């Protein structure tokens, strides 16, 4: 369907513009012959509205002869021929309409002149060519919008694929470390190994359920962190302590399993290397339109430096940047024998309960 006919307001504006064309035709009639304005109006306004719908066909001409797939000669020739046919048809309609009005005594016989016929034909050709040019402009604009829409869809799909890839990295990395712990406990403490297997199964069941969602509440994410710490506490016992607080931001939404790599690093590369153990602290807070999440753990300055800790940090950083771009940031560093990671995200609340 023609874009003007699809909605009422553009059609009303379009017909309103043709009232001006009808006024111009009426002025030509009164100037070329001795007829009154009412008589000219009976002729000009209906003719203008009829030609308004004739010019709508220029849209379909522009669709049939697109600029991108047609030569300039073909476009020009098609436009001139279509305009000539439309102008001639308009002239025939005008003469027929004036004959009908003359038969009813609403228009003087012979009131039109040859000069008016030539002017009417010329105006018809120009108006049709103008309509054709506007149709090409509208088509080019719509094509540009479609290209932009497709490019945006490609970006969205690429971002979703990147997020799925990054999230898929979490499970193998975590399972590798957990299975190593279970293997070590099997020989020294079989009961603890069995308990760790059960807790690990519960953690994986819940993480799989939450991981299938695009966003979850911070409250649910923190509960998952607590389950993870329960698993690790089997191995570390009283050496591992935890403080987890939502700070009143439990209803803010975050990507699922966002904090798990950071807490895993806090245990594996922090508490594990401190003889007396320590406390893993996870605290969230609202800062205006932003959500801040802090993960802290004690660390030994003389601990062995490995490459493993970088996996979780880069994963989290890449995920929040893919989701929020420059609106999100993450900082990480060591100070006073404490490793701190802070994440700042746009604060968006969910209506579901945490």
Structural overview:
This protein has two domains: 3-151, no CATH class; 189-346, Heat Shock Protein 90 (2-Layer Sandwich). The chain has ten helices and seven strands. The protein has helices at residues 3-6, 8-32, 37-55, 57-64, 72-103, 114-188, 190-211, 218-236, 260-268, 309-324, and strands at 216-217, 240-245, 253-254, 278-287, 290-298, 329-335, 338-346. The strands form two sheets. Strands 2-4-5-7-6 form a five-stranded mixed beta sheet. Strands 1-3 form a two-stranded antiparallel sheet. Helix 3 (37-55) runs antiparallel to helix 5, helix 6 packs antiparallel against helix 7 (190-211) and helix 8 (218-236) packs parallel to helix 9. The longest helix has 75 residues, at 114-188.
Write the layout of secondary structure elements.
Blueprint: H1 3-6, H2 8-32, H3 37-55, H4 57-64, H5 72-103, H6 114-188, H7 190-211, E1 216-217, H8 218-236, E2 240-245, E3 253-254, H9 260-268, E4 278-287, E5 290-298, H10 309-324, E6 329-335, E7 338-346
Parallel strand pairs: 2-4
Antiparallel strand pairs: 1-3, 4-5, 5-7, 6-7
Helix pairs in contact: 2-3, 2-6, 3-5, 4-6, 5-6, 6-7, 6-10, 7-8, 8-9, 9-10
